[in-house]
Specification:
Layout (H helix, E strand, L loop, with lengths): L9 E7 L7 H11 L4 E7 L5 H10 L4 E4 L13 E2 L1 H6 L4 E5 L2 E5 L1 H11 L8 E5 L3 H12 L4 E6 L2 H14 L3 E6 L12 E4 L25 E4 L8 H8 L3 E3 L1 H17 L5 H12 L3
Parallel strand pairs: 1-2, 1-3, 4-6, 7-8, 7-10, 8-9, 10-11, 11-12
Antiparallel strand pairs: 3-5, 5-6
Bound molecules: NADPH dihydro-nicotinamide-adenine-dinucleotide phosphate.
The site of NADPH dihydro-nicotinamide-adenine-dinucleotide phosphate has 23 residues, from helix 4, helix 5 and helix 8.
């Protein structure tokens, strides 16, 4: 019997600028290989003025979907056919998913974080302190609010971005948000349940940078989370561990985003352990 071949892979990928330092391709392709999927993930350098062409190219080649990273998370929306619930509230998309003939924009940044956090604690009814008000904080704040968090204190250096995020949460979700301008050493209120760093403080190569927080104000009952994936053991995570807090690291968030994207595109539940190991090897320089 002649064997039937299939040399045609299903395509997914990422559009960003600059793309070269983004390790997502290695993590996603490790999962595709592990699960025996004839799928590929292509990491593409796309300039802002070419984003429309890139999306049209994906449509022409019948891509199952794509991630969008900086600087395209907002600009991509006009090239899509619709938005998922939380992406519409955030006004930002990092994952487009082909449904029928349409590309629907989702946001897996906050969902990936939530999946990691839920491994330790349910956010429903919790009081949250969220450092930062950029893209990651916005995604996390909205997703936590939709998951039933009671209150979110947004602690941010710049007034405007903090105010924007607080307004989005208060106007579009059932949670209560308040703004705190971060000017000096911040003391975490003893009632806080979950403390999250969603700023870029601690990201490689600035690994020695620390959040301006009074560490004595962290209590052992608090859960402390960090979005920084590289290195995952930030000063905040180490200090919180030393104070007896349960911790959630940023590498888990990155892996879970990938797990959620793969689920959207292929329908399978990818093995997070394989994906995490791949990233750990890369960050360890192997
Ligand atoms: P943005 O540039 O949109 O926002 C950066 C945020 O950090 C702002 O709130 C900014 O405050 C704050 N910030 C930066 N430096 C300082 C400082 N020295 N002191 C106080 N605040 C500071 O970035 P993103 O939100 O897109 O990304 C933030 C981090 O999240 C990145 O490090 C990224 O690696 C990580 N990330 C991790 C993901 C994961 O899967 N683990 C996914 C997405 C992001 P201000 O508004 O005052 O400038």
């Amino acid at each position: 019997m002649p064997q039937e071949f299939n040399f045609l892979s299903r395509l997914t990928g990422s559009f960003s600028q600059s793309a070269a330092g983004n390790p997502t391709v290695a993590m996603i392709e490790a999962a595709y290989r592990h699960h025996g999927l004839n799928w590929r993930y292509i990491n593409c350098e796309v300039a802002p003025e070419r984003l429309g062409d890139a999306v049209r190219g994906a449509r022409a080649m019948d891509w199952a979907g794509f991630n969008c990273s900086l600087p395209h998370k907002v600009a991509v929306i006009e090239h899509l056919d619709g938005l998922g619930g939380s992406a519409a509230i955030m006004g930002a998309v990092n994952c487009a998913v082909r449904r029928g003939n349409e590309y629907i924009g989702e946001n897996t940044d906050g969902k990936g974080f939530l999946m990691s956090l839920e491994g330790v604690v349910e956010p429903r009814g919790k009081r949250i302190v969220l450092f930062g008000a950029g893209g990651a904080a916005r995604a996390i704040g909205v997703e936590l609010a939709l998951a039933g968090a009671y209150s979110i204190s947004v602690v941010n250096r710049s007034l405007e971005r903090g105010a924007e995020l607080v307004a989005v949460i208060n106007e579009k979700t059932p949670a209560k948000a308040e703004q705190i301008v971060w000017e000096s050493k911040y003391k975490v209120h003893p009632d806080a349940d979950i403390v999250i760093n969603a700023t870029s403080i601690g990201l490689y190569p600035q690994v020695d940078s620390r959040l301006d927080i009074d560490m004595e104000s962290l209590r052992p009952a608090m859960i402390v989370a960090d979005v920084i994936p590289n290195p995952p053991h930030t000063h905040l995570i180490k200090d919180a561990e030393a104070r007896g807090c349960a911790i959630v690291d940023g590498l888990g968030m990155l892996v879970n985003q990938g797990v959620i994207s793969i689920k959207y595109w292929t329908g399978i539940d990818a093995d997070a352990t394989i994906m995490r190991r791949k990233l750990e090897d890369i960050f360890a320089g192997e």
